[in-house]
Design goal:
heterodimer, A: alpha+beta, PH-domain like, 4 domains, seven-stranded antiparallel beta sheet, B: alpha+beta, three-stranded antiparallel beta sheet
């Protein structure tokens, strides 16, 4: 290990491949910002006036700046290890020197996109507990070097931070990595097939429309113009509609399938000292370490399709300081069976508290409230208005009432929470199941909310805010809500463990 | 009722109760701040409504037209004032040994409690209208993001500073304990 600290004790540059990777990053950024201009350039080319030539030169100029910029960025980026701190010195126009003491480093993740994989390098991300800029990235490093650096820093840090006696016993328990979950290609296909295809359909539609929006100012005009040729076909409106739904359905089916396979290819979830480690991805290979003290809550859910395979998707949410990292702080692991969910829970949380507890129900009034406000009233209003304009056809709106009553009944049946000295578990879901677990002492703030209606019925909702999202228990008796509030506050205030 | 959670290792009735703690009202003057800041928007809307009627060529300039354009605004304005006055006494805060609590709201009541050992940072702020009345707001940040940050408005300079010092002192102490 000594060799690593001496090898990188002097300021050193990244692997040369970094130039290519920085360049790609620059180009992607430029394209993402300027692509409508570029597109209009290509489309409007036939007009051939000098304005478009200027745009062409500008584009060339931007490309040149990109190239020069990435080379300069590479040559002005140094890093080294000194006195228990990781130091990065970088910046072409504005030079910054960042000094990260090991004990402030939360996790170090390695990532490989396709270029990285071709050249056998990795990018190294250092996540710190700082207030704002919480992340530093080294674009390209030799794989062995990166792994050695990570191991060195994490070990040094653990010696600095975890001088509690419990750390030692833990160390003995999990010396080697133990694989919890490994996804083969058949698992991936199962997961892909059972994705929420409606959601990918929505994403597809959103993408198509936002793209059209950027291209033309007036979508409706364009659509009308385009469609005017197909007047006759349009008279068979239903056929066209059904046809396009089928096509979009098929596309989004394959979209989510391919997406799943690419993202989770060869996924391995393993228990390591102090937490979990995930490796996955085909084109973009990523390696994520999860520190158990940083995990704020874990949820797992299924949907009707997934239930056929008995598979859950686990979501692990970590504390993240910067708002922009919120998405990254949520790690989804699909394709886990109940057994694996329990393994993950018992690794991250104290094992003895992972057990079933008495299910506390919420008030039945919640069911009636939801039914009235999202079922009865909208249906009656839509039906009433429709009746005067369209006649009896509008009575179909009444079907909505039945549908909502059915879903609310299922929802209410599943809605409950469980509590013990360490853990709060929320059970919910309508068509699928969704379970959330949080450790009481990691809660940041407790809110009790009461609407005027709830006050009349002596009910309240409790919200537990954690460093990664909040968890809500609606419509429970006020007395119970206050008991929860007092208990959780007591738990937070009397606990001295590390919570982030 | 309270024995609903029987599996816990601690007797819930023995815990300090949030509702039993001593709550402080914020400064009376803050009511004026909230009335003024609410009124600015309504005033601008009222001016706009009157200007539209008086400058437009197509609208006649009768009493009825002015009434229709400004009436709803005046009505909403008075609702807003009424609500602000009614809701004001509900804004209360409490400092306990280990946490800070703030409750507010007339129709929708919210009470948020933040333990000192989860506070990241606290600051005293002052908006332009608050400056006129020499009032300050205390903002308490947690790692829980926007949704769990706490703002206590309407504090005198002395009080705001004192509370901030109190909180920061407590978090610093806890910080020492944690490492």
């Amino acid at each position: 290990m000594e060799s690593i600290s001496t090898k990188f004790s002097q300021p050193s540059r990244q692997s040369r491949v970094a130039i290519a990777i920085i360049l790609i990053k620059f180009v992607r950024f430029t394209i993402r910002t300027f692509w409508p201009i570029a597109l209009s350039f290509f489309i409007g080319r036939k007009a051939g006036n000098s304005f478009e030539d200027i745009i062409g030169y500008v584009a060339l100029g931007i490309a040149a700046i990109n190239l020069i910029g990435s080379v300069l960025t590479y040559f002005r980026f140094y890093f080294h290890i000194e006195d228990g701190a990781f130091i990065i010195d970088k910046g072409v126009l504005r030079r910054t020197k960042t000094n990260i003491p090991f004990e402030r480093i939360q996790t170090i993740n390695l990532q490989q996109n396709i270029v990285h994989q071709i050249f056998g390098v990795v990018s190294l991300e250092i996540d710190t507990a700082g207030a704002k800029k919480s992340e530093l990235t080294i674009d390209a490093l030799n794989k062995e070097d990166a792994e050695a650096i990570r191991q060195f820093i994490l070990e040094e840090r653990d010696q600095l931070v975890e001088d509690t006696p419990s750390a030692e016993t833990e160390e003995k328990q999990v010396v080697e990595e133990e694989i919890i979950l490994q996804l083969g290609i058949s698992d991936l296909i199962k997961i892909g097939v059972s994705q929420n295809h409606l959601r990918s359909m929505a994403i597809l539609f959103a993408f198509v429309f936002s793209t059209l929006n950027e291209l033309t100012d007036n979508i409706t005009d364009m659509v009308r113009e385009e469609l005017s040729d197909y007047q006759e076909a349009l008279s068979n409106g239903w056929v066209v509609f059904a046809g396009s739904v089928v096509i979009v359905g098929i596309i989004s089916f394959f979209y989510s399938l391919i997406n799943t396979v690419l993202k989770n290819y060869d996924l391995k979830l393993a228990a390591r000292k102090g937490g979990l480690r995930i490796v996955r991805g085909l084109l973009n290979k990523e390696e994520i370490s999860i520190n158990k003290s940083k995990v704020q809550n874990i949820s797992w859910s299924d949907n009707p399709l997934r239930r056929l395979f008995h598979m859950y998707t686990i979501q692990i949410e970590q504390a993240s300081s910067a708002q922009a990292d919120q998405l990254k702080a949520k790690i989804k692991i699909p394709g886990s069976y109940t057994e694996q969910v329990l393994r993950v829970l018992s690794i991250v949380f104290p094992k003895e508290f992972i057990r079933d507890e008495e299910k506390h129900r919420v008030s039945i009034l919640l069911k009636y409230r939801i039914f009235i406000f999202s079922g009865l009233l909208p249906a009656l209003m839509a039906g009433g208005i429709g009746y005067f304009t369209n006649g009896l056809v509008a009575l179909w709106a009444l079907l909505w009432i039945g549908f909502v009553w059915l879903s609310v009944t299922i929802y209410y049946k599943k809605r409950s929470f469980e509590l013990n000295d360490e853990i709060l578990k929320n059970n919910r879901g309508t068509f699928g199941n969704h379970y959330e677990v949080l450790q009481l002492y990691k809660v940041q703030a407790v809110s009790i909310k009461q609407s005027w209606y709830q006050r009349r019925k002596d009910l309240a909702s409790v919200v537990f805010h954690t460093a990664a999202g909040s968890l809500k228990i609606p419509f429970i008796p006020l007395e119970q809500a206050e008991a929860l509030e007092n208990f959780v506050l007591y738990k937070i205030e009397s606990d001295r463990r590390k919570w982030m | 009722m309270i024995d609903t959670f029987q599996n816990l290792s601690i007797d819930l009735t023995s815990l300090p109760e949030v509702t039993q703690s001593e709550f402080n009202q914020i400064e009376r003057k803050y009511l004026r701040v909230s009335l003024i800041s609410r009124s600015i928007l309504f005033f601008l809307m009222l001016v706009a409504a009157i200007l539209i009627v008086s400058l437009s060529d197509e609208i006649e300039k009768g009493l009825f037209e002015f009434g229709v354009s400004s009436g709803p605004i005046l009505l909403l304005w008075s609702f807003s004032i009424f609500y602000a006055i009614k809701a004001f006494p509900k804004k209360k805060y409490s400092l306990r040994e280990k946490d800070i609590i703030y409750s507010k709201g007339l129709l929708w009541q919210t009470r948020t409690a933040i333990p000192f050992n989860r506070i990241q940072h606290a600051e005293v702020k002052q908006g332009p209208i608050e400056r006129i009345f020499k009032l300050h707001s205390l903002k308490v940040y947690t790692a829980g993001g926007e949704s769990s940050d706490l703002v206590i408005p309407g504090l005198s300079e002395e009080n705001a500073g004192k509370i901030k010092e109190f909180i920061m002192g407590k978090t610093a102490l806890d910080g020492v304990d944690q490492h």
